[in-house]
Amino acid sequence: MINNTKLIINLRKRINLYAFYLSSGLALEAAAYPKPGNVHRLHDFSDIRFEDFIIASGISQIYFLKGILRGMVLAKGVEMKNVYGDLIRSIVINSMNISGSGNTNLGSGLLLVPLSVALGYLKVYNYEIELNNLLSIAQNLLRKYSTVNDTINYYKTVRVVSPSYIRSTDNTGEMPNAWDSNFINKIKGKGITLWDIISFSSKYDLNSNEITQGYPRNLGLILFMINRLKIHGEWNRAVVETYIYQLSREKDPVIMRKYGNETASYVQNEARKIMQCIDDWAVCKKEIEIFDEKLFERKINPGSTADLIATAISLYSLWRQKSIIRLK
Question: How confident is the model at residue 7 (pLDDT cuts 50, 70, 90)?
Fold first, then answer.
């Protein structure tokens, strides 16, 4: 009996730590500076401040823990009507309500909640948390267990957040538009799961594409960040370099949808130029600061890129677990 109690206590400690590791990316991504176009400790938006991400990180831990517990239930063969959508909604809405901010984590919540469920699923089987396996399991569980209720909750979240790049005029094909007043009945009538929505969105949305592909970008970003840390050992610099690296690789979909291809190409090309100087940080940092000011003046924010970096940091934290921001 004593041994069983100890096992339960140790398991609780472990899953609480897992929830913390997942939440850490939201705060650590926001803290990195200079991070062109997005909120950081020296730059705020009119409706979102750096401190809002700190609050969101703390709140998200509660719901990542719930996601882990749900994954443990799924592993025992129990099906649920709500698996993902209400957790994403709770993270986003409660963060907004408590801090009084605009949306800080719709995209990152979509990326991270499936990981929390996968963590719980793996722990019931007592598997070691190996990143490739975790990401594959997260993808497969979402495909298998996401529900109509998950979709409805996700749509409700989008309607509250009201992102400027999701419009009533968008062509959503067979999927209901988020602003359709009859969206609930249409979702129920067609049996549309959250996986169905993400699969459809993956053609133009970076976060959705990342999930359906099994998080390949995140693995690449983690490897890049680890390499930079090994080279110079400076956490903030490594996060900013990883951010610039992702900007240089792909056009940010948020910029594409808000400002068009020309602006997205401009941002990508500027990031590629900066990548050429990252080994000379004294010079490179100045170039990044100038780039940051230009994007802020034009209110150009690479939101999808920030979501990917936050998720990569969370996964890195989960993998490393100790001495996260210092290589020892």
Answer: low
Helix (H, G, I), strand (E, B) or coil at 226: helix
User: Phi then psi for 43, rounded to 5 degrees?
Assistant: -140, 130
Tokens describing residue 186: 């249409």
Helix or strand or coil: residue 214?
coil
On whether the CB atoms of residues 222 and 131 are closer than 8 A, the answer is: yes
Structure tokens of 103? 């949306």
Cross-strand pairs, 43? 40
Q: Which long-range contacts (CB under 8 A, 24 or more apart) does 190-199 make?
A: 191/148, 192/148, 192/151, 193/146, 193/147, 193/148, 193/150, 193/151, 194/84, 194/85, 194/142, 194/146, 194/147, 194/150, 194/151, 194/154, 195/142, 195/143, 195/146, 196/151, 197/151, 197/154, 198/110, 198/142
pLDDT at 12: 80
Domain range list for the chain: 2-320
Number of CB atoms found within 10 A of residue 46's CB? 7
**Is 9 in a helix, a strand, or coil?**
helix
Among the listed residues 179, 154, 44, 18, the one whose alpha carbon sits nearest the alpha carbon of residue 99? 44
- Give which of 262, 252, 312, 243 is closest to 26, Cα–Cα: 312
User: Mean pLDDT across the stretch 100-122?
Assistant: 96
Proportion of the chain above pLDDT 70, given as a percent: 96
At the topology level, CATH places domain 2-320 in Triphosphoribosyl-dephospho-CoA protein (1.10.4200)
CB atoms within 10 A of CB 89: 25
- Burial class from Cβ neighbours inside 10 Å (0-12, 13-18, 19+) for residue 125 reads exposed
- Cα distance between residue 182 and residue 238, in whole Å: 46
- Do 177 and 197 form a contact (C-beta atoms < 8 A)? no
Model pTM score: 0.95
Burial of 230 (C-beta count, 10 Å sphere; 0-12/13-18/19+): exposed
